[in-house]
Amino acid sequence: MVYVNLEDMKLSQFVLGTDGYGERIDKKTAFDIMNEYTYNGGNIIDTARLYCDGISEKYVGEFIKGKRDDIYVSTKCAHPPLSDMTKNRLSESEIEYDIDLSLKTMGIDYIDILWLHRDDITVSVEPIIDALNNMHRKGKIRYFGASNWTHDRIMLANEYAKASNQMGFIASQPLYNLAVRSKVWDETLVCLEGEEKDKYDKSHFPVFAFSSQAKGFFEKYAKNQVTPKAKDRYMNSKTLEIFEKVKEKSLESGDTISYTALSMLIDTSNFNVFPIIGPSNVEQLRVTMNIK
Description:
By secondary structure, this protein is an alpha/beta fold. Helix content is 42%, strand content 15%. The chain has helices at 27-39, 55-64, 92-106, 125-137, 151-163, 194-203, 217-222, 228-234, 237-253, 257-267, 282-289, and strands spanning 3-6, 9-12, 15-17, 44-46, 72-77, 111-116, 141-147, 172-173, 207-209, 273-277. The strands form two sheets. The chain has an eight-stranded parallel sheet, with helices on one face. It has a two-stranded antiparallel sheet with strand order 1-2. Strand 6, helix 4 (125-137) and strand 7 (141-147) form a beta-alpha-beta unit. The longest helix is centred in the C-terminal third of the chain and has 17 residues, at 237-253. It is globular, with a radius of gyration of 18 Å.
């Protein structure tokens, strides 16, 4: 396992994502995955208040009981109501409500990295930064990041944070992988591609990449097992050209295709990348992390 320093944290470069815990992934499988991940050196688990109506956070909290000093907890708050994605929940009261519920659900005293799950560009950054710093001063969060915020908005927020002698966002969490999207399926997601990626290459701002494996496209394509969702989102000539490069490097190194794709994502980025991996079972985890 490779470890990367971020602020005063020494994080495993592969982050374990827990979306689906409590729904498509049952409790036993979830615990098996978390056990295998931490046994092989992983030390940061990413969840969200939104995931499975809090069940994901519940499982994470139960798993880390007695291990809190060894595992960093990353969770997300302030997601809009699923019934109306245009309605923001970025007020301090809403942010604190979600934080308190996450802390209670996981049975912990603080969150290592709190992410704002979505943005609303009609809301100015100043009160958001002020609110997050209030949460930090209360001891409820150590650091905070932005998920599905553009690079420009994050930099604007951090400029205000610096000018007001406060803490800013320490990282971004966009959709980022080697594949080329065939379509935009959710306008509220921020994808790190084109000019957006160029901005990160210049600023060197850290990225926690969700959907880092493009729904498992490369590994599954090699096995002729691409899911309909992955095929719909990523099957195109450009992605297949990238697959050939991944396959060639995989054969040269002897590493799995999944691991090779993530390694190439890290190596071709001019900023620190922490891929968030979301295996559905232990075997997928072993393939992704190249565990022999």
